[in-house]
Amino acid sequence: MSAKKSLPLHLFWSFFQFGFYTFGGGWSLIAQIQKKFVEEEKLLSEEEMLDVISIGRSLPGLLTGNTCYLFGYQVGGFACALACVIGISLPPVIFLTVLTWFYERLRAQPLVESMLLGVRAAVAPIILSGTLRLRKAAFMLRSGYVFFALALAAYVFGLDCILIIAIAAAAGLLLYRKKEG
Amino acid sequence: MLVYLQLYWAFCKIGFTSFGGLSMIPLIESEMTAHAWMALEELSDIVAIAEMTPGPLGLNCATFAGVRAGGMLGALCASLGVLTPTVIICSVVALAFHRFKEAAAVQHLLQAVRPACLGIIAGFLINLLRSDYLVNGQLSPALIAIGVAALVLLLRFRFTAPKTVIVSAAAGLLLLYVPTLFRAAH
Fold it and tell me: What is the ipTM of this complex?
């Protein structure tokens, strides 16, 4: 039983370590969880892990946070879920707080400013290439293009993003349910 | 005090209505500019810094924006805000985990929300194009060249985002800073 008591702590510490070296996107983290907890420690079956990933990634919010939370919950309930989420979140929060401190002090230096200008020029391409990777999942149905165009128009027109997504969610629920029913 | 509550609430809303890091960026932009917490160029800086550092993009953006708007406590409020929806929604879902798996409603919702998110990102990219290639209010050929090169590196040569950020920082230094040294020498 003592092993069970320390499970949240064990998870917290593992996820805290994961938090330091998971760059870009949740997939590298998922690979690490898979290796350590599914293959080595066998805390979760392969199938359960797949469910955690697919559900975690279809809920709103931080996809990584969702996946970690659901993983923790499946392994050992609420305490473990929180341990995983806090563990994975602490390193980036610490990192970014320190980095932002430097950013605020150095950004006006001509040398740093020139690098930031160069980096800014690469941000739109980075977002574009990331978005292109999502297009398959988004346009599985033809009607996806209609939602794309309407949302784009609404955004350019100045409608609040949160409102646009809420409307799309409601429309999706209504439209596609009718089609199946 | 108010700014901390505003930060928490703004990121709570962002968390509830976004699906994944990229879709969060336009939402962050509209909240940031609505509260005058930061300018569009600074948002580009966040995205670049967030891509360079480990951790989920959304959380990195929240921390950065929180520090900018309200210091360390602001960072804490913003990151708690962006994590709140995860805890609430996942707690509810975890209770009905196996029933949820088959819930068709979620799939229906996503079939509309996913393309809508892309539409918003496309609109946001248009805004970004209008602000990110200016030096002192003038369109800069050097920055356009960096942008085009970055796109080629990403799509053609499969560069990762962190690598692209490093290359473009070096290019910025070379094309924008080094020439000023020569001009100063004359």
Answer: 0.82
